[in-house]
Amino acid sequence: MNVRRFLTVVLITAAFVLSLVGFSAAQGKQRQVLRWGSSQAGSSAYIVLFGVAKIINDALPDIYIEAIPAGGSIASQRMAGKGELEGVYSGAWNFTDMYTNRGPYEKAPYPANSPKPYQTWYCYLAKQFVITKAERNDIKTWSDLAGKTIFTSVPGSSVYEVPRAALTALGVWSKLKAVNIPFTSAADALKMGTIDAIVGYANGDVLIPWMAEVDTRVKLKIVPPSAAEFEVIKKVKGYATPTLDTKKVFSQDMGVPQVNVIADYYGFHIGNKLSTEGAYKVIKVLVEKANEVAKVHATLVAYAEDPIGMQVKAISSIPDIPVHPGVAKYLKEKAAWKEEFKIGKE
Fold it and tell me: What domains can be seen in the chain, in order of their start residue?
């Protein structure tokens, strides 16, 4: 091979390689990377996001979701406000906190110059209930918690604020003592009588780990709100009031097969950093692949039964909070949109 021919081959090869590099770079620029927050690594929320992100990433060549462990709902919202995340993990109750400067946002509002996330995708209900030892005859309804010591979750979290709102409506919260103890101590505290009752919860009909330990170590009964109490509880805006199948959730007989509970819809949400078309494609994938989503974690089984219905019910619990325009587009396409819902700005 002469020198001229050799140089020609080298130049053609170099041009081809550079074209591939340029094409690859162009492809990389086209794929939008979204840092999405959840809860702590190893938590059910993180596992859900990690699995769901893979489903989205495999289905959509122009979007890549990076699952980021965070401290939960409020923590991920705070990180988004600082520009450290594009997407957040949030319950409906904490959405209202963020938009109305309530609760954890009263003294430190969400930054005014940072776009807030919109309601985007809900995937499970955190159902909350009251339990006590099976032999306790003095706690039959929620009003009986007056004068008692109860354990519920960390102040500021929605699983603390939601039962507080319900019990406040009943006029009971100010008459009881709510204590904050390590989750691992809950079973022993209930057995010894250090606490009289627990406000526990199940995500998607699956007991959270510390509550599952209480279920295995203590003979329990569930305390239902009376019919009159439940009518008062239902009037509080911002949470849902579904039923809980105790036979499905607990390993023991809880005294009643089904009970009325309070609940918060949880999911993953993003603001206008994801375009209308992008959010439309994401929600479309998650609805059309609902059966695949359900395989990610047991908490998502109920979602697969009616994925669109869950979105509508969740949004209906906080209709004043804006919905992502891409999600609105999809729900309208499916004739599931309600006129009272609000659409966020693009």
Answer: 25-124+267-333 (3.40.190.10), 126-264 (3.40.190.10)
